Amino acid sequence: MLGEHYLDHHQWSDHYVLVSARSKQSATRSFTELSQASRYVAWRHPGMDRLNQQLASAQLRLNHRGELTCVETLLDLIGRQHCISILPTVFLSGRLRELEAVPLPVTIMRQLSVVARPTSLLSNAANAVIQALKRPVSLSIQRY
Hints:
By secondary structure, the protein is α+β, with helices and mostly antiparallel strands.
């Protein structure tokens, strides 16, 4: 209970990985290999500044070519081998045939907390967001 009228409904965390098109060869490419040979397009989101600070403090440099806010467009470009990006693993759900997650040299996490009114006072949209966050992440994603 955070107060008389507000409850913390859910805390959720995920970590970032380098996302690239799945290699036709069986060997997984390394972060260094991909970051030197591919264009990097960033996902523009509220946590982007923090992600960039963590990458800079770990002295990770990428060939930055732009930013996109639409995750679906970014994933489509990655799948067509036009670029790479750093994204939370949850975005790879259902796309592991065409995309691969390459671990970053350092672990970079993100955490979301949802603080809202009691369930009976929430809008349908707020309830949908909270229910989506409560759904478990598939096991194929958690292994990264």
